[in-house]
């Protein structure tokens, strides 16, 4: 079966969404469940999302679905119900809403991809049952309680299961992180990394919860007994603490994998601008496309360097722009 896909150029789509004035809601959702006919599932889902003018990135595989999308605000509740009725296994799927006061449009096209895994983890063990082994869920109140007790008793380890560059700009105080830039590498090293803490409570958190589902399952499968995870991740925690009007202990920025590159939770700064070394927590990709380095840059240096990571890239970009003008 042929995959349905977009036929319009990406540049045109980007211009189209930037010029639109409609209000959109950014949401993420995931679910581990078995999909038998993956091609039909993918194409039918794609048609549904196109009909509701959804933009974003959706991964489907035989193990489930993982989505980060934006929806026109007036269509959000209708689409939410449609997705929950799309498959019996999606009836109780949770939608994690992101902050609405964003300045940059996160998506300008829709991509629905069939993948081997909904999160690349490098695990080939066919006996790992996510539902059976995953860590116990903690809502915001239970997480806060355990977090405060740990400050006094040091009876737990709070493990940030995000990549090192995500952890750099925002985190729970005193949490630890496996210093890797991919989840696959973190999973490869997690058992050795946590071995000294095997008799302690292990509390994991990540952006929206999906990486903790796999990571907690993996360590429980290998004999770790006291394993917990923050339900719905940092995004869900932030929303729930606001709703319940309870303390919120995450500090800094929550990195997101779209054009925004982060949602500010608090104004705490943990990193410095690569150029001027002053405090900043704003990620950019180097404007010189052949480099495209992800790095921290303050607004002042962004303007001064035209978004480049170094004087070398700045000079190359300037030269390229002059050559284009000449042509």
Short overview:
This protein has about 325 residues and is α/β, with parallel strands linked by helices.
How are the elements arranged and paired?
Blueprint: H1 10-18, E1 24-32, H2 38-51, E2 55-61, E3 64-72, H3 76-84, E4 96-97, E5 110-114, H4 130-133, E6 136-138, H5 140-153, E7 156-160, H6 164-169, E8 170-172, E9 176-177, H7 183-194, E10 201-205, H8 210-221, E11 227-230, H9 233-244, E12 250-254, E13 263-264, E14 283-285, E15 294-296, H10 299-305, H11 311-326
Parallel strand pairs: 2-5, 6-11, 7-9, 7-10, 10-11
Antiparallel strand pairs: 1-3, 1-4, 2-3, 8-12, 12-13, 14-15
Helix pairs in contact: 7-8
If you had to describe this structure to a student in words, what would you say it looks like?
The protein is of the alpha/beta class and about 325 residues long. It has three domains: about 10-115, Alpha-Beta Plaits, CATH 3.30.70.100; about 130-245, Rhodanese-like domain (Oxidized Rhodanese, domain 1), CATH 3.40.250; about 285-325, no CATH class. It is built from eleven helices and 15 strands. The strands form four sheets. Strands 4-1-3-2-5 form a five-stranded mixed sheet. About 35% of the residues are buried.
Main attributes?
single chain; 327 residues; alpha/beta; Alpha-Beta Plaits; Oxidized Rhodanese, domain 1; 5-stranded mixed β-sheet; 5-stranded parallel β-sheet; globular
How many separate domains make up the residues?
3
Percent of sequence in beta strands? 15-25%
In this structure, how is the largest beta sheet organized?
A: 5 strands, mixed
Number of strands: 15
pLDDT below 50 for ≥5 consecutive residues: which ranges? none
Radius of gyration of CA atoms, rounded to a whole number: 21 Å
**Helix percent band:** 25-40%
The name CATH uses for the topology of the largest domain is Oxidized Rhodanese, domain 1
């Amino acid at each position: 079966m042929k995959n349905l896909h977009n036929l319009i150029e990406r540049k045109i789509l980007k211009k189209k969404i930037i010029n639109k004035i409609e209000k959109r809601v950014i949401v993420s959702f995931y679910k581990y469940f078995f999909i038998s006919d993956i091609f039909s599932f993918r194409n039918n889902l794609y048609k549904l999302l196109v009909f509701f003018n959804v933009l974003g990135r959706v991964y489907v595989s035989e193990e489930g679905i993982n989505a980060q999308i934006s929806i026109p605000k007036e269509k959000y509740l209708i689409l939410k119900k449609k997705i929950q009725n799309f498959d019996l296994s999606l009836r109780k799927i949770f939608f994690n809403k992101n902050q609405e006061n964003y300045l940059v449009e996160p998506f300008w096209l829709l991509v629905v991809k069939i993948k081997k895994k909904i999160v690349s983890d490098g695990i080939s063990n066919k006996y790992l049952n996510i539902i059976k082994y995953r860590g116990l869920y903690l809502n915001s109140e239970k997480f806060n309680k355990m977090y405060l007790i740990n400050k006094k008793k040091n009876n737990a380890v709070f493990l940030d299961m995000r990549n090192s560059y995500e952890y750099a700009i925002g985190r729970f105080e005193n949490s630890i992180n496996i210093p890797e830039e991919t989840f696959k590498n973190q999973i490869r090293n997690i058992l050795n990394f946590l071995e000294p803490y095997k008799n302690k409570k292990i509390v994991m958190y990540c952006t929206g919860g999906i990486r903790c589902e796999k990571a907690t399952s993996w360590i429980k499968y290998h004999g770790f007994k006291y394993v917990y995870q923050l339900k719905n991740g940092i995004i869900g925690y932030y929303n729930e603490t606001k709703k319940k009007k309870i303390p919120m202990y995450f500090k800094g920025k929550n990195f997101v994998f779209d054009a925004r590159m982060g949602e500010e939770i608090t104004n705490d700064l943990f990193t410095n601008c690569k150029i001027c070394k002053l405090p900043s927590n704003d990620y950019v990709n180097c404007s010189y496309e052949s480099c495209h380095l992800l790095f921290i840059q303050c607004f002042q240096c962004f303007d001064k360097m035209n978004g480049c990571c170094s004087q070398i890239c700045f000079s190359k970009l300037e030269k390229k722009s002059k050559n284009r003008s000449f042509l």
